[in-house]
């Protein structure tokens, strides 16, 4: 889809690499510029074949060139690479690329129509811009973390980096917008993505509802207060999600279970003093997860399981759509875009394409 587009990726860890991997799977040629010691994610946490899982999961279908950006030669090669590209992504703290001589103002002297995207925590200006932060910080300041609370009202520590992934999606979206604008106008552009702002952007419903009602928990019908839209525990201590918000789905649910007396309790509260809620809880606890999964496939009532990561590959929907796949080294991956062919490409070895890319630059210089 995007074959012929080239992006030079100076990002590390998770948000930036996730952004460019999404683009790589759309056909973009992503050249990952790594320090001599490699993206720190290569050495982080759990490893497979001596390479960090975080790196392997977010750098498929890319090329890698190892450059020392603290030396003149490394900077010169980076600038020559940028001259061949359509876009640049970087995720350093504000000011770092300027110190290196690879900031937007410098780069456009070498490539006037470049689309340049900086992926930051808090933007490139203002009193927060110099601060280091991580996913949990962006989740906190955006208000999103306040929506994930236990029964005591304590925020639950997420075990998935929602903010980082949203930031990566926003960066890939903005890069694509910049490339489209360049096609239309012939001009490049600069974009600065703030992950904190991106995460806050999903709080629109909550802000307006809080302004009108002083309720901080968003859309009431969707936040777990209704018997027909809630999570329930099963006999084997697993969980299912019931989303029978519309009348037809609740009707299907009740009638399939032979519980017509529940129909009028569609919008009743999911509280212990509600006898219907307690009966629904008891019924869900009478059958195991697999039984409810089968029920949810047969009865159109918006009933699905809460799956664990190692169950995704065996779930019928993902099998049918071939969303999950194994590459050549038998690692499990998830497609970034449905209907895009997987070529089995793994994440690159450190500097795997350095010789190839340097040779290309030399050849272009001699033409």
Automatic annotation (TrEMBL):
UniProt cross-references to SUPFAM superfamilies, sorted A to Z: CoA-transferase family III (CaiB/BaiF) (SSF89796)
A single MF term (Gene Ontology): catalytic activity
InterPro entries: CoA-transferase_III, CoA-Trfase_fam_III, CoA-Trfase_III_dom3_sf, CoA-Trfase_III_dom_1_sf
Highest rank taxon of the organism: Bacteria
Protein name: Alpha-methylacyl-CoA racemase
């Amino acid at each position: 889809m995007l074959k012929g587009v080239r992006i030079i990726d100076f990002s590390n860890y998770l948000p930036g690499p996730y952004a460019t991997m999404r683009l790589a799977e759309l056909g973009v040629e992503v050249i990952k510029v790594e320090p001599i010691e490699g993206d720190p994610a290569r050495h982080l946490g759990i490893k497979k074949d001596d390479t960090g899982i975080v790196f392997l999961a977010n750098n498929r279908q890319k090329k890698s060139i190892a450059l020392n950006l603290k030396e003149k030669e490394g900077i010169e090669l980076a600038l020559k690479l940028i001259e061949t590209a359509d876009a640049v992504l970087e995720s350093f703290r504000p000011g770092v690329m300027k110190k290196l001589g690879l900031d937007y103002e410098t780069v456009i002297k070498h490539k006037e129509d470049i689309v340049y995207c900086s992926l930051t925590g808090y933007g490139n200006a203002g009193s927060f811009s110099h601060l280091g932060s991580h996913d949990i910080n962006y989740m906190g300041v955006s208000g999103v973390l306040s929506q994930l609370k236990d029964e005591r009202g304590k925020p639950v520590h997420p075990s998935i980096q929602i903010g980082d992934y949203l930031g990566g999606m926003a960066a890939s979206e903005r890069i694509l917008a910049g490339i489209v604008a360049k096609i239309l106008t012939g001009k490049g552009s600069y974009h600065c993505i703030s992950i904190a702002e991106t995460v806050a952007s999903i709080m629109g419903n909550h802000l307006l509802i809080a302004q009108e009602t002083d309720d901080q928990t968003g859309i009431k019908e969707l936040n777990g207060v209704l018997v027909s839209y809630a999570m329930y525990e099963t006999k084997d201590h697993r969980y299912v999600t019931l989303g029978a918000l519309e009348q037809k789905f609740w009707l299907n649910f009740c009638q399939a279970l032979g519980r017509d007396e529940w129909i009028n309790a569609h919008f009743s509260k999911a509280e212990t003093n509600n006898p219907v809620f307690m009966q629904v809880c008891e019924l869900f606890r009478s059958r195991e997860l697999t039984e409810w999964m089968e029920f949810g496939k047969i009865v159109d009532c918006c009933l699905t399981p809460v799956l664990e990561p190692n169950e995704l590959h065996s779930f019928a929907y993902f099998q049918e759509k071939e969303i999950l796949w194994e590459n050549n080294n038998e690692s499990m991956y998830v497609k970034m875009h449905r209907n895009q062919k997987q070529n089995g490409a793994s994440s690159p070895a450190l500097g795997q394409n350095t010789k190839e890319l340097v040779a290309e630059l030399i050849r272009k210089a001699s033409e």
